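Explain this record to help learners:
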Amino acid sequence: MEVRKPTWTSSSFLLYAGAFIVLASALGALLYLSTQYGQGAVVAWTLLPLVVLGVLANGFQAGGSWIAAGVFAFSTVFVWGVLWAEMFRWWGWWTPSDTSGPFDGLNWSVWLIALLVLAAAQAATLRFRFPLLVLYVVVAVYYIVVDLVSNGGSWTAVVTLLFGLAYFARGASLDGGRFAPYGFWYHAAAAVMIGGALLFWWHSSELEWALLATASVIYVGIAAATHRSIWAVLGLAGILAAATHWTAEWTATPFLSQFEPPRFWVPPLVFGVVGFFVITLGLLAARRDRRPA
């Protein structure tokens, strides 16, 4: 069965927004209840939104509202993860203060929660075939592996870069097929991971910012080649980040004094040039879009 791709319409926007507001309200209620009851009672209370959201997801699917079913399935998986986190806290297996960072030490209880969420997301994906559920898969697999083989710092950045390349390959393999809507989340994860690793390394010297700006232009080229606009969005973010850095450098004077005021004419000049450069990239991408496949 082919996977459908959600389109941006007024109805889809309202369905997404409404479902996430319901999820936020459920989490807010659980947070309030955690201040009123013991840990065991909180676990019991967590079952209520889990069941309600699951029933809504299946009910909307039976009624043919596949987007509403999908977003409520996404919310159900989220609360499923919250349920296990609360149970582990109740059993004394995990507390939020166990680690000071996402990759600080080996924490088997967090891995187990991630695996349980991964299993639920896989099951929900098979049932609802909703692309957003793939987000759980890409995040959970990344977290488990990276936390297992690294402990923060440069090595984590290296593993993140490798994961980004692997996710890019996975996304490209899905493009054009019946599972193409799933590919978006692999492309999104790849763009964020590769860009995050490069930014971790390249954010100090002028050469590094030039390399980051060059990588951002390559991102735009990838967007044109794959027809995945997420690469263009993050590419533009990288270009603007580099432009902002250089604007700050060039606006400031060597010695801030009344004899040599800041060069306030620099920002409009730099961003004007950047704007025309981005337009040029857009025209080149549009030319490629009109080219026969």
